[in-house]
């Protein structure tokens, strides 16, 4: 049975969560015993930290389940859906204290204890290689039907800001250090979003990617919004599962092959896959099973196509002139558009509060320049989407930056660029605008940044 209160109580939410924090319960006692025993357990089993580089790393299964696919009572997430680059990155984050350093982050502290036993890159690579030997498994929903189950439709709207880094299908983006979300346990995703909001993740001064994620999590207005987003990610997992079933598992004498250019499916004569057992090929009526999946895929593919269309379509191909000397700086020297192009002049946008509960005159209210830039560009993405456009349609951008008091009143251009580079010049969105960035004396509402753009279609 789902322990709903345990999901949020273990965070110590300080008013963020509706359930009172730290009630005594068997689950918490079990976790505390496990956490306090990890160091001595590893030392006894392996003898020394260096032994971990050559160990079979089966100790991962203690918390992450017998197949490394997650263990809800202990709190270990599904590792099989996570790529090696992300696993290594997070192991290092635990070791360096980016994660698991907060006093009440009991889950993070337990993982930090394990990560510190991996003393070098070789040991971390060995651990991720061990995890890679386990088959990819998608987690089953645990929050559906509970009192905290989210609303999928509301979540779909809120997820738009998540898609800028994690992708429309929740498949992740290594260039933006964004892991896959689809297929991960819903209880774990909810716990991590709450952790970001409560200040247990993304607060270390050197954890720039974590800080960006915390800024996004704080854009969710309340705890219910967290569960709404998680519910929508669960739907993405189901859609991927259906497409995977149609392309891999329906392998009778005439398996389903999906066309890349149409939402229709084509039946192609092909021998069954060698990995399929005869029982799998002949369950019930194979033809009826195939037809059922085809019907689901015909419904799912147009929806996926519509979700990604805004980032793929430009009505007019603008000519973007690169900077000279093969510069990799992510702006265009100039942009020209053909006659007849419709131009849209978008008013300047200011950031949304990073911490609405803070004093409006304080730094915490809007956050630093990086946090504010992430907010403004996400707002542009949503505004342009409503008008049938995307960030790739932007041909000119004017950026107004206020000097940061903590940087001797100089504009934080580096913080701005860290956020900007997550939206422009990426594999997902390669189109670069012509751009100007200037420091100004002040902006409305005490913001550190305002951006205005011209878009073309």
Shape descriptor: globular
Order of helices and strands: HHHHHHHHHHEEHHEEEHHEHEE
Helicity, in percent? Answer: 40-55%
- Which band does the percent of strand residues land in? 5-15%
Strand order of the main beta sheet, please?
Answer: 5-8-6-7
Number of strands: 8
Oligomer status: single chain
- The helix/strand class is alpha+beta
Helical element count? 15
The average pLDDT score comes to: 75
Distance between the termini: 52 Å
Biggest β-sheet description: 4 strands, mixed
Radius of gyration: 24 Å
Unreliable parts: 1-54, 242-316
Describe this entry's structure for a reader.
The protein has 457 residues and is α+β, with helices and mostly antiparallel strands. The protein is 41% helix and 9% strand. The chain is built from 15 helices and eight strands. The chain has a four-stranded mixed beta sheet. Strands 1-2 form a two-stranded antiparallel ribbon. The longest helix is centred in the middle third of the chain and has 27 residues, at 223-249. The protein starts with a helix and ends with a strand.
């Amino acid at each position: 049975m789902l322990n709903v209160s345990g999901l949020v109580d273990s965070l110590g939410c300080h008013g963020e969560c509706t359930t009172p924090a730290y009630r005594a319960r068997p689950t918490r006692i079990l976790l505390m015993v496990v956490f306090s025993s990890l160091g001595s357990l590893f030392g006894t089993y392996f003898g020394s930290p260096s032994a971990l580089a050559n160990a079979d790393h089966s100790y991962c299964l203690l918390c992450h389940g017998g197949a490394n696919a997650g263990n809800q009572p202990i709190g270990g997430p599904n590792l099989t859906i996570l790529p090696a680059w992300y696993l290594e990155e997070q192991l290092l984050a635990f070791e360096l204290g980016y994660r698991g350093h907060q006093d009440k982050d009991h889950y993070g502290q337990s993982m930090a204890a394990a990560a510190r036993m991996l003393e070098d890159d070789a040991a971390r690579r060995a651990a991720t290689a061990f995890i890679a030997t386990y088959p990819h498994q998608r987690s089953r929903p645990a929050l559906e039907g509970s009192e905290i189950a989210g609303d999928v439709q509301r979540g779909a709207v809120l997820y738009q800001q998540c898609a800028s880094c994690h992708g429309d299908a929740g498949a992740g983006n290594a260039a933006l250090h964004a892991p896959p979300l689809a297929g991960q346990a819903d209880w774990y995703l909810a716990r991590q979003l709450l952790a970001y909001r409560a200040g247990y993740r993304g607060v270390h001064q050197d954890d720039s990617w974590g800080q960006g994620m915390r800024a996004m999590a704080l854009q969710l207005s309340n705890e219910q919004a967290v569960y709404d987003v998680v519910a929508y990610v669960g739907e993405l997992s189901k859609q991927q599962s259906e497409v995977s079933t149609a392309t891999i598992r329906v392998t009778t004498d005439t398996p389903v092959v999906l066309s890349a250019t149409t939402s229709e499916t084509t039946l192609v004569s092909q021998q069954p896959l060698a990995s399929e057992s005869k029982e799998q090929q002949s369950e019930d009526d194979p033809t009826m099973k195939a037809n059922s999946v085809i019907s689901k895929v015909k419904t799912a593919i147009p929806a996926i196509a519509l979700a990604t269309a805004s980032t793929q379509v430009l009505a007019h191909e603008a000519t973007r002139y690169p900077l000279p000397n093969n510069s990799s700086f992510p702006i265009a020297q100039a942009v020209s558009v053909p006659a007849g192009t419709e131009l849209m002049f978008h008013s300047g946008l200011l950031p949304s509060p990073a911490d609405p509960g803070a004093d409006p005159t304080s730094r915490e209210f809007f956050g630093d320049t990086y946090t504010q830039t992430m907010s403004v560009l996400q707002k542009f993405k949503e505004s342009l989407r409503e008008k049938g456009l995307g960030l790739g349609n932007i041909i000119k951008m004017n950026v107004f930056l206020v000097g940061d008091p903590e940087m001797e009143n100089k504009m934080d251009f580096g913080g701005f660029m860290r956020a900007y580079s997550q939206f422009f010049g990426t594999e997902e969105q390669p189109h670069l605008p012509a751009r100007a960035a200037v420091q100004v004396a002040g902006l409305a509402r005490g913001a550190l940044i305002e951006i205005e753009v011209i878009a073309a279609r």
